[in-house]
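Quick start: load a record and inspect it. Here is Alpha/beta hydrolase:
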Amino acid sequence: MKGLSVDLQLVLPELREPMRRAQVSAPRWLVRIAVRLLRVPTSNAVRVTNERTGSTRIRVYQPTSAHSGAALLWIHGGGLLFGDAKQDEALCLSTAEQLGIVIVSANYRFAPEHPFPAAHDDVLTAWYWLLAHAKELRVDPERIAIGGESAGAGLAAGLVQRIHDEGEAAPCGQWLFAPMLDDRTAARRELDALQHFVWDNEANREGWSGYLGTAPGAATAPPYSVPGRRIDVSGLPPAFITWGDIELFAEEDRAYADALRDAGVPVTTDVVTGAPHGFENWARDAPSAKALVKRAQEWLRTVTAPA
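Running the structure step on this input writes:
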């Protein structure tokens, strides 16, 4: 991540100061340590436990009072290079409490040390763990959604595709915040000059190159590694996709939403004007971020409701 360079007038005024604080310029190893050491909020209405399935670490959020019987598999962001389930603690606590749903938040291995399919296999393992423990968690297997933010949302989209193809118990919806969907964006060198806030195309190229183990934009990519390349998206579950209009992923997110809609998949899009990438996380106290999360949670409430 780099310093500010784009005209601040494009950014919502309420996001400008939080954005300054969100800009990070540090070695990847230091970012990884810092994220793991994050101080996290707490809630008396949600019990948080840490579990492990094989080599995959997961964080489980269980409402202590109201319990809807639904669940969400959540996948954190970090450009496929860093991150931790704890970075989304506020969103997971809020969502579990407001909707009365169980949330399983998955950690996964990072590129470039662990290229595809490592992270993909890790989140698939978390999905199977959730299904295997649905009864003891008091979760209806037919009312589980899959979601994530940024790279995590891209992993979520790829996971939904794989589950669909394998004919297993399908998620009831996909909840995608600013998803990182298409490596071909990283191959577009003309986007480098725009230096998008928070996550620019040079960082994007680093993430995709490490994950794919090759330069982005090749003629083909392994199945499920690049969700935005999938040709046939028919039959996938309903989707909520949100992004900011000034972020790097705006074009690829819009293209994926259009492809889903054209294939007959119910899609709700929520485009926030003047919002840089991931603002609902690093500026979560801003009115625009709170409003987006509320709209997203209402969609999730509806899609996970009993049939």
